[in-house]
Specification:
4 strands; disordered N terminus; alpha+beta; single chain; 23% helix; four-stranded mixed β-sheet; 2 helices; binds FE2/S2 (inorganic) cluster
């Protein structure tokens, strides 16, 4: 769908009902960072799965790249809003579970949550 098409689903009050941001940042000098993991592949997988399930577009889900989200030690990280749910992940099956459980059905994937005390 182009930006000029009429959306089939009415936009949510925030335009998108959920937003997921993937940190793709690389820090210098070998410091812990998300780019030390397969973050680009995870981001692409999420976009593909969201689209395949018909979840993308106004009123639904938006998948975005992000710079450093300042939780580098927990990397790779992705955060879902409006809930503010922080995830880490290892492989495509983790991404698929975040998509189907949380982005599609609103159910947090407890096993992939970033511990609250892991930060920079
Ligand atoms: S490099 Fe990903 S949170 Fe900082």
């Amino acid at each position: 769908m182009s930006h000029t098409d009429t959306p089939s689903t009415p936009p949510a009050p925030g335009y998108f009902s959920r937003h997921i941001f993937f940190c793709l940042n690389e820090r210098p000098n070998g410091q812990p960072c998300c780019a030390q993991h397969a973050v680009q592949a995870a981001f692409e997988r999420c976009k593909v799965q969201v689209k395949a399930l018909g979840l993308s577009g106004p009123g639904q889900v938006r998948v975005n790249k992000a710079g450093c989200l300042d939780r580098c030690a927990a990397g790779p990280v992705a955060v879902v809003y409006p809930e503010g749910t922080w995830y880490t992940y290892v492989d495509e099956s983790d991404i698929d579970e975040i998509v189907t459980s949380h982005l599609q059905n609103g159910k947090v994937v407890e096993r992939l949550l970033v511990p609250p005390d892991v930060g920079h």
